[in-house]
Amino acid sequence: MNRSVDAVTRWLFVVCGLVMLMVVVGGYVRLARAGLAIVEWNVITGIIPPIGEEAWQAEFAKYQQSPEYQKVNYGMTLEEYKRIYYIEYFHRLLARIAGLVVVVPFLYFLWRGHIARQHAKVYVAIVLLFGLQGTVGWLMVKSGLVDRPSVSHMRLTVHLLLALLILALTLWTALNRLYYAHELVPVRVRPGPGRVALVLLGVLVVQIAYGGFVAGLKAGHVSNTWPLMFGSLVPPGLLSAVQPWWLNLVETPVTIHFIHRWFAFVVAAVVVWFNVAVRRAPTTPEVRRGGLALLGLVGVQILLGILVVVFNVPLPLALAHQAVALLLFAVTIFLNHRLLHVAPDEAPSLRREAVPGYASGKT
Q: What is the pLDDT of residues 157-195, one digit of tens each?
């Protein structure tokens, strides 16, 4: 099928790219220990950084009251503070730009009729989720400004998973328009690779969530050997550091590191299972290519994970590890989209040529 891309679809793909960029930039901010540099959440006035020596001294004085300065960066100079301030400032500026890229085109497309009002709910959901993401981001930062020099790993993981939800919803909507010129398309879970694709999505989200726990607790630093941890394949005390035992699964850095380290191979096994299922069922060439892409990406991701551990979380490898996780997630969303939708020949009214006004971009 020859698919052209209209302005709304291009905008949705741009939003997907921005979400992925923001997640990677957020990872850089965290690894640079700059996320707590700005201790206030000023949505409007925060657009302009401090100007002049007096303004910088006032901002620095606020930071000096924070747990991070008092427990980690005590004695930091103003110039050193400016470096981490600008890193976090750029992060927040990018978030503001992303918000404008979401809201302004949406209102324009809605006004011009490129987005039909009866189909606007999914776009409103994307806009609201962006607003919620900003709020959760601040609540995450706020958790590190009270009595400890780090943010809550739970809030960080919620922040990360919310970004994945925004990415999934935006990408799914873009693919609906790309293939069907329509935002809402019936979904049917198909046997075989369709069900395996859903399993893959589930295990991948669990693995990424544990990546958030690892990041929030700095659990990547607890062991720099592989495959052994502290000289053992399974270190002792994984479920006994805190009580009740199940809290270790979400609170204990060693346990979380261990789970994230080995659950990667569960993801890899499901990717292999998916490719076997694809070969045994009638599927399209793009689905088969997507399965092979997953195989390559999961292999690269496991290698990056091992290198991150062995070299004690170097910045370039850690960011690459995060970026590949996003690519894995995006490809998995794509494959679920192609396998879970009703086929075009089963719903001819959803085909591009059957949608009035598509050529003009009005649907």
A: 999 999 999 999 999 999 999 988 777 777 777 778 999
- Listed ranges 43-57, 175-189, 252-266, 336-350; the one with the highest mean pLDDT: 252-266
Q: Cβ-count burial of 230 within 10 angstroms (0-12 exposed, 13-18 middle, 19+ buried)?
A: exposed
What are the distances in angstroms from CA 19 to CA 11, 26, 30, 293?
Answer: 12, 10, 17, 21
C-beta neighbour count of 240 within 10 angstroms: 11
Q: What is the pTM of this model?
A: 0.90
Domain boundaries, the chain: 1-185+347-363, 189-340
The label of the residue with tokens 């993801």 reads 267
According to DSSP, residue 281 is labeled S
Other Cβ atoms less than 10 A from the Cβ of 348: the count is 9
What does the buried/exposed string (b/e) look like for 179-189 if buried means 16 or more CB atoms within 10 Å of the residue's CB?
bbbbbebeeee
Cross-strand pairs, 232: 229
**Contact of 248 with 242, CB cutoff 8 Å:** yes
Average pLDDT over residues 341-358: 46
**For residue 71, what is the enclosing H or E element?**
helix 67-71
Q: Is the pLDDT of residue 146 over 70?
A: yes
